[in-house]
UniProtKB/TrEMBL annotation:
<keyword id="KW-0157">Chromophore</keyword>
<keyword id="KW-0274">FAD</keyword>
<keyword id="KW-0285">Flavoprotein</keyword>
<dbReference type="InterPro" id="IPR014729">
    <property type="entry name" value="Rossmann-like_a/b/a_fold"/>
</dbReference>
<protein>
    <submittedName>
        <fullName>Deoxyribodipyrimidine photo-lyase</fullName>
    </submittedName>
</protein>
<feature type="domain" description="Photolyase/cryptochrome alpha/beta">
    <location>
        <begin position="5"/>
        <end position="134"/>
    </location>
</feature>
<dbReference type="InterPro" id="IPR002081">
    <property type="entry name" value="Cryptochrome/DNA_photolyase_1"/>
</dbReference>
<dbReference type="InterPro" id="IPR018394">
    <property type="entry name" value="DNA_photolyase_1_CS_C"/>
</dbReference>
<dbReference type="InterPro" id="IPR036134">
    <property type="entry name" value="Crypto/Photolyase_FAD-like_sf"/>
</dbReference>
<dbReference type="InterPro" id="IPR036155">
    <property type="entry name" value="Crypto/Photolyase_N_sf"/>
</dbReference>
<comment type="similarity">
    <text>Belongs to the DNA photolyase family.</text>
</comment>
<dbReference type="InterPro" id="IPR006050">
    <property type="entry name" value="DNA_photolyase_N"/>
</dbReference>
<dbReference type="Pfam" id="PF00875">
    <property type="entry name" value="DNA_photolyase"/>
</dbReference>
<dbReference type="Pfam" id="PF03441">
    <property type="entry name" value="FAD_binding_7"/>
</dbReference>
<dbReference type="InterPro" id="IPR005101">
    <property type="entry name" value="Cryptochr/Photolyase_FAD-bd"/>
</dbReference>
Length: 431
């Protein structure tokens, strides 16, 4: 008995049915579409069993599954090494086409190239689409075709190109739902994929404060940010809908979305930055890399209230306000002279919105080693940052319960640390 010919759509960082570029294309193919998600052991094996991001992925997949059930379809969820999973799928189904949305991180590019080779060897047509950005790879370049490495000219070119096509076309996937494969697959539980429920949860995104975003975004106690970042990271929201909306609502908020694409293009075009300095002249800096100091930073016990509040918020919730991220990152790299890679790796473990391009880009910005025009002697004073952005100490008291009981002394004096950092950078920069 011959197998039914099918197309597969492979969900990854696009966990939604609505306005999904690759899914829209898949549903227009001549074969019925089986939606697929693979829990990749190469990623899961590095995570703790209560990882909140895996919880969020599972929750988001359950939402997709419930929606598919309403139309008599179902999500096929697998777990294992992706190469092994795809080999078994090729044996189980007569796969004619595979559709997916692109991912631009180094591991994803390597994985996808290997899977594409496997599928093409089996005479499966593979198609990849742009979905998590407005402009990708080399779509925003200088006149000579080179990649922008400074944000402002990138932003200007991005806006110029966007305005010629605004609004960006959104994909009406719902009109094609009849083309989903009619089936019912069992959704594995968290426990069945080797995980357990986390006490940390992803908050719903909230756009009601965006109209005056520029006035409130730097004050952590006000808590008037969008909480969009994890949803953008895992694709539970459409970036096209968001940008088309933001373009008419708030320029500063739109600029943050453009920063996201800037860092994605930097990582794609300069993959070495995943763990090496963008500016190789900074490779000669002699970092202190003191493990005891790093531990105090991780635990939020540096004696600087703004730094400690941020780290405690991160450890307890998986979130950290963006202004505070700049302060804690600067403190680690400049005050303690600990390499940015240490902080980047810790954030990668803890942040609900961890995205390699943004995390690496912002850590190198803080360290002064990235594609940023500011000189290396920019050193944030944590006390001044506290007075400017949390003058009454409301944010600090929320996360440091013992703050009013006599808080400890700073582990390093600011003026000394600043002078030491500048001297160390100056001596280490390669001529």
């Amino acid at each position: 008995m011959s197998k039914q010919q099918v197309s597969l759509f492979w969900f990854r960082r696009d966990l939604r049915l609505d306005d999904n570029a690759g899914l829209f294309q898949a549903l227009q193919s001549s074969k019925v579409v089986i939606p697929l998600f693979i829990f990749d052991d190469a990623i899961l094996d590095k995570l703790p069993v209560n990882d909140a991001r895996v919880n969020f992925i599972h929750q988001s997949l359950s939402t997709v599954q419930d929606a598919l059930a309403q139309i008599g379809s179902s999500l096929l969820v697998k777990k294992g090494q992706t190469h092994v999973v795809w080999k078994s799928l090729l044996e189980e189904y007569d796969i004619q086409n595979v559709f997916y949305n692109k991912d631009y991180e180094p591991y994803a590019l390597e994985r996808d190239a290997a899977i594409c080779e496997l599928l093409e060897q089996s005479n499966v047509k593979v198609q990849a689409f742009k979905d998590q950005v407005i402009f990708e790879e080399k779509e925003i370049t200088k006149a000579d075709g080179l990649t922008y490495t400074v944000y402002t000219p990138f932003k200007n070119k991005w806006l110029e190109k966007y305005k010629t096509m605004a609004p960006v076309v959104e994909y009406d996937t719902e009109s094609l739902y009849a083309n989903f494969h009619k089936n019912s697959y069992a959704m594995p539980t968290l426990e069945e994929i080797g995980f357990e429920k986390s006490v940390i949860t992803v908050k719903p995104h909230n756009l009601k404060f965006i109209s005056n975003y520029q006035d409130t975004r730097d004050f952590p106690a006000m808590d008037k940010t969008s909480y969009l970042s994890p949803h953008l990271r895992f694709g539970t929201v459409s970036v096209r809908k968001l940008v088309n909306w933001a373009f008419h609502k708030n320029d500063v908020f739109l600029s943050e979305l453009i920063w996201r694409e800037f860092f994605m293009q930097i990582l794609f075009n300069f993959p070495k930055i995943a763990n090496r300095n963008f500016k190789s002249a900074y490779d000669g800096i002699e970092w202190r890399n003191d493990e005891a100091d790093f531990k105090r930073w991780c635990e939020g016990k540096t004696g600087y209230p703004m730094v400690d509040a941020g780290m405690r918020q991160l450890n307890e919730t998986g979130y950290m306000h963006n202004r505070v991220r700049m302060v804690v990152a600067s403190f680690l790299c400049k005050h303690l002279l600990i390499e940015w890679q240490w902080g980047e790796a810790y954030f990668a473990q803890k942040l609900l919105d961890y995205d390699m391009s943004a995390n690496v880009g912002n850590w190198q910005w803080a360290a002064g080693t990235g594609c940023d025009a500011a000189p290396y002697f920019r050193v944030f004073n944590p006390d001044i940052q506290q007075k400017k952005f949390d003058e009454k100490g409301s944010y600090i008291r929320k996360w440091i319960k013992e703050f009013d009981l006599g808080y400890g002394k700073p582990m390093v004096e600011h003026a000394m640390a600043r002078d030491r950092a500048i001297a160390t950078y100056k001596a280490g920069i390669l001529k």
